[in-house]
Structures are given as C-alpha cells and as structure tokens.
Design brief:
Two copies of one chain form a homodimer. The first copy, chain A, contains 14 helices and 16 strands.
C-alpha cells in the first residue's frame, strides 16, 4: 500500500515538474508573492494547526518544542522569505557558457531545473515554506516529508500553497506533503529514484546517516557541523577572543557554531585561562584534554567521543596542539567538513590552513558563523552541503539546478 | 577478510590523496609524462599479460574479446592520452569566483581535489590508464576495480604507474588496483563512503543499476545511451539522411550512437522508404511500429522493450509520430537522457525541442555522435554523465573536482 501511495505521489510530481519547467520567471514570482500573501491571511488557521501539534507532542525536549512552535512572527518570516525568493534572479535557463567548435557547431551549457526534489526534515514547520519557495523558483516540483510531530502545521502550510497554485490554474502537485509519516514510508521514499532526481535530508546526524545508507536517489548531505577554531602561535589575541566567543555563544544551536578550540602550546599558558574565563562567564561548559586542564581549573576531561561530537549547545572542547601540522591533522581527522577557522598573523600558516583543511568553508581571522547563504549573499539557502559532489557549502537557487548542453548545428555529422 | 582488505586500501588511498593534493601542476605533469614513457617501454610486458587474459577468457563474445584485446597501437594510444592530460590546464586551485562582503570579508570559491575516487569498469584495460591519468591530474587518488577478465592486463598497467610514482618519491598508493575481482568485494567497495568521495561506474546498464542500488558513496552514472533523432515535418531531408546514417552507423557500439528514429507522419510516405533503404544498405537491421511498416517492406515489428533498449549494434527502431508533442513525450518517456536530436527548419520547434527534452545533450540539425569530451574541447573525458547531479554530459577534469569556500577576514564576527 505504501508503494502505491508513493508511486502515485512520484507520478504526480514528475508531471507537475514538466509543466513547472515551462513557467516564466514572472509567472513564478507572481505565484510566490501570492503564496506569501495567502500565508499571512492564513495565520489563524496555521496557528491553530500548530497548537494541535504542540498538544500532541507531549514527551519532547524544550529545544525540540521551540523548533516546533509557530508564532505570528515566525509565519510572517516565512512570508517574507517567499518574497525574498521572488526577488532573486531566476537561475533557470541561464546560459553559463557558449562557444563554437571548429566544425561550426555552437555548444552552450545552460541551467535547467533538477526535476523532482524530495526533502526529508524534522521539527521546524518553516522548512515547508522555505523548501517549497526555493524549489519552485528553481523550477522543480517538491515532495516534502516533515517530522510526524509537525504534521498538522506542515499540512496547513502546504494547503495554502496548493490552493494558491490551483487558483492560478497551475498544478497543485508542484508541492506535495507526505502525510503518512511512518519510518517505513520514509525508507521507501529514499528508493524512489525512478521519479525523484535529488533527495536532501535536513536534520541531525542520525537522519543524515539513515538517508546516506538507504537512498538510491542522489543525496546532498547537509548541516552537521563539528566546527573548529585553531589559535596559532602568532594570533592577535585581542581579535581572537571576540571571534571565539561569537562563534561559540551567539547561536550555539546552529551548525556553523564552533564546537572545538585548538590552541598552540606556546601561547597556552596565558591564553587558555583567559579565554576559558570569558567563555565560562557566558555560561559555556568547557571540556578539554589533559594539557589544557593544566592551565586552568574547571575543565571537564574530554573523552574520545568529544572530538567527533557536534554539541549544538553551550559546550566547547579545548585541545592544546604542538603546531600547525598537529592542528591540521586533528581537524581533518575529526571535523564534519563544515567550517573551520585559523586565527593567525602568519602568512604561510594562513595559506597552509586554507589549502590543507578539507572542509566546505575555511576561514582566516573570522568567525565560523558566517557560513550561511544569507551572509554569502545568496539571498536564501536550502541548507549547507558538507559533501563534495554537486554543491559544497551554502546552497542557494543555483545549487538546486542541473545543466544541459544545447547544440546548434546546420547539418554536421561526425567525420 | 574482504572488509580488512578494502579497509586497508581505503586508508592508503586517503593518505595518498592528501599528499597528492599538495603537488604542483609541474610535478603532476612530469609524473604523467614519465608514466607515458614507461608505458611505451613496457609494451612487451603488457602485451604478454593481455595474452594471458585473452587465453583465460574462453567463453566471451567477439565484441567483448575486441574490447579486452590490447595491441601496440592501443598501448601507444594510452601513452598519448596521458601526454594529452599532462598538457591540459590544471583545474585544481582555480578560483572560480571571489568577492568582498559588506563587512569586509573576502569570500572566494576555488576548485579542490575530490579526494578519493573509485572507478568500477568492465572489459577495456585502457580505462586503467585513462582513469588514473584524469584522476591524478585532478588531484585525487584512485581505486580501480576492473573486470575479472582483464585482471592481468590491468595489473601490468597499474604496476607501471606504481613504479613511476615510487621512483619519483611519490606515494605509489595514488593508484591502487583491486585484485580481488569477486562480486562480493565489489559490493563492499560500494559501501566504503568513509574513505571514498566519488564512485563512477563505467559499463553497461546492469553495472550502472547495481551501483546505483547498492552504493552509499555518491555516484555519477555514466554512459547508457538510448539516443533519439526526430525528423520534423519541415526537416531539410538532404541534410537529414547523412546525419541519421552517421549517428547510427559510424560507430554503432558507442553510447552516443542513435538507437531510435522518430519521423513526422506528414513526411513518412516518402522519407521512411528512402532512409530505410540507405540504412539497410549499410547493414542496419530496422525495427519499427505498425505505421512505419506500412511505408516500406523489411521492417521487423518492434515490441515494447525495443523503445527502452540501447542496442549498441547495427539496429535501429523507427516510429511514426503525429507531431512534435508526440515526439517530445515519447523521448522523455523512453530515452536514457543522454543525447537527442531534432532535424527541423522550424525555429519554434527547434526551441521547444531544446527546452523540453530532458537529456544531457540536445541537438538541432546535427548528429548525436558529437556528445564527447574530445569533440566538446575538454581534451579528455572520464565518461558521459546521464544524471543531473554534479555533472551532466561529457565529464572532463573540472567535473572530477569539488570546490571549497576560502574566506579572508581581519577579525570579523557575526553581529
């Protein structure tokens, strides 16, 4: 039964995608603007659906409850997000390159819609609006499978978009929400490569792993961030402290927050107690290796797992390293390849760090918190890719498209 | 035991990759040139290894036997291929874009090596040299798993490269050949996502399917080509015939050869007999739908499977369509999304075909045989991607790289 249910969704998504691919930018932008307006008009309906979700979700953590909760402001932010997307340049049909071959053929490469995109996500109902908006503008129909706790909120939001699409004479199946939130259905969804061109999981490490291991659809992994800051021997310590405090404490729950602090041994004696005191005064729990613990009190011994863990919380682990080589080796062995920073005044060390660290975003003398589509000027993002294929780092509209070669001839055949 | 064997290969490949990533273009080009020279000096050894493979492979088809066979010329071609790769621009460290953000951060995006690439392939031993050369220049170590029939030839070729690398003081594990050619080991290789960044299958539809269904490593599908030519009502039939003959007969075994011919009903009466006669005179077997068979004799009835089959042989299936819509619908339903062509003098129809056909390469008035890295000016190719993620169409050196963001700051933290 699950198979039939998903098959039907797949067929409809593919059909919707081919009609969507033919819309002009104006048509898409108008639809997005109407969706934003309609979201605002539906605030009461969405809030009461969310209220039900909140009631049904009895045994969840406070952090999860916060992610699940919708407010007037949060719904207004979704609408604002759709208007921002309407204002962004349309990536579809952009010709990236075009040249003529010696035989007179003209070969161009242009961006085309991906086709059908599926998104599997967890608590936040705002993903329903963001993912629809980005996929729609990028010309792809979207199949959404949110967390079961958010099902009523997600359904209320998706219904708004379905209604707007229908009122415009467009195919409502451009966005479909999977209402069967069983694990079994999610697993089957991951095998639907005959209909779906791209699967993006948005959520914790467990979800990402499940998708990577089970999907036959091409996947882009997003979001796990075990980010490092390395304070080199020559760092300007006046600049270093605010960067570290910012990267750890400004928003500890997000994936570009710093989770690990590596400190060069030659500056450890003074810098470890100073930075730990500042972090602790902001409520940060500090874990560390034995060498770090020698320089200050109040450091909880870190175990082997700590070095591979994304805390997503006010916790940081401090490690003393002998030199840059040690720092690079440790980071490349333990990071999730999201964002890492070196704080240094050494030209050579900054270049080596930029070259040798194998992560999506590598910083010199700045906070890891900047790894973000908005900060990078993309206008909006669907997530931050930590894999190497197709897209790496913040993913905007362009990263949601594919390309195709178009070739203009006048009778050429191969010699 | 297999697990340990592959684990060891994975660890060594990852270690070799990080050293390889630091080589300059000059160092890589010199190594490639020496590999080419050494291949030429080893012709006798390689030929005698190939002789053994040919003896051991008793019950294989003639076509397979031809793919397996090495000759002096074929080895010289491999050496030439390596020299061509040495002469191509190095994609690694190319900065694609760089801009400054309002807060003074400078954000650049540069090409970086993929890391570790695995290639699973079938009969042709020349893939051993081509894949090594391209991956090496693109800065990635490579794990090769060729067909069991070619094991001695592949081992002899890989040994040449291992020796050259060692003689240059480089890590010989930059290229590793898997000598255990069991299916079980291939299946386990597909799960090694902790070491391998990209898996490329090169071979028939069966291999591609097995990899897509089993791999936990990001995959790029290559090569299956059920390519179509649509002859529109307004086609210049003088130009059409040579294009069709070329696309079908110039090299029927390759993936960009035409397999299907769709003909507009309004020109069928004259054109079907004319083109069939020309194709038959070149030894092409013609299958077709009922309507096509009405216009000429000697057409074998096509069954449902024909429309989805890549013959890779001197066979073509002919179908009469009512109009452009019919043609587009049939192609998007049955093609393998490789290469399709329209032959037309209609501006509107040419644009619709270019826009609405969902394939890697879409042609107007030219043969599908041009879908090729060499023809497109890439200098060399690792294969032709028929998927939408990361790379679509012929894949050259750039498509074997990833990117990373590099960010230059001077103390910035997020407000």
């Amino acid at each position: 039964m699950t198979t039939e249910y998903l098959d039907d969704i797949g067929v409809k998504a593919k059909k919707a995608a081919s009609a969507l691919a033919r819309l002009t930018s104006n048509e898409k932008n108008m639809a997005l603007t109407l969706c934003a307006e309609s979201l605002e008009k539906s605030i009461d309906d969405i809030l009461s659906a969310n209220e039900e979700d909140m009631k049904n979700a009895a045994d969840i953590t406070d952090a999860y409850r916060d992610r699940l909760r919708l407010t007037k402001n949060r719904i207004a932010d979704m609408a604002k997000g759709l208007r921002v997307i309407a204002g962004l340049p349309d990536p579809v049909n952009e010709v990236i390159a075009m040249k003529s071959l010696p035989n007179g053929l003209i070969v161009g490469q242009k961006r085309v819609p991906m086709g059908v995109i599926a998104i599997i996500y967890e608590a936040r109902p705002n993903v329903t609006a963001d993912a629809f908006g980005l996929c729609f503008k990028a010309g792809s129909s979207v199949i959404l499978r949110g967390g079961k706790e958010a099902i009523k909120s997600n359904a209320a939001i998706a219904q708004v978009f379905n209604n707007v699409l229908q009122s415009l004479g467009l195919d409502a199946n451009i966005v479909q929400l999977i209402t069967d939130t069983s694990r079994e259905t999610a697993r089957e969804l991951m095998k639907l490569n005959r209909y779906i061109d791209l699967l993006i999981p948005r959520g914790g490490a467990g979800l990402i792993r499940a998708v990577t291991e089970n999907s036959t659809i091409p996947v882009i992994e997003t979001g796990v961030g075990n980010c490092h800051i390395f304070v080199d021997e020559s760092a300007d310590l006046q600049k270093a402290a605010p960067i570290i405090i910012n990267a750890k404490t400004q928003r500890p729950g997000v994936c570009n927050a710093a989770e690990k602090l590596l400190i060069h041994q030659s500056i450890a004696r003074d810098f470890v107690p100073a930075i730990c005191e500042q972090l602790q005064s902001k409520g940060v729990q500090i874990r560390g290796d034995e060498r770090a613990a020698r320089f200050t009190s109040g450091i909880i011994p870190a175990n082997d797992d700590d070095w591979d863990t994304e805390y997503s919380d006010l916790i940081i682990a401090v490690k003393i390293v002998d030199n840059l080589d040690d720092a690079i080796e440790h980071i490349n062995a333990h990071s999730s390849r999201h964002s890492e920073a070196i704080l240094t005044e050494s030209y050579t060390n900054s270049q080596r760090f930029l070259n040798e660290i194998d992560s999506a975003a590598v910083y010199v003398n700045a906070s890891t918190r900047f790894t973000d589509g908005g900060e990078f000027g993309f206008g909006a993002e669907i997530g931050i890719s930590t894999q190497k294929l197709h897209a790496r780092g913040p993913m905007g509209l362009k990263e949601l498209t594919s390309t195709k070669y178009i070739i203009y001839g006048n009778g050429q055949y191969r010699q």
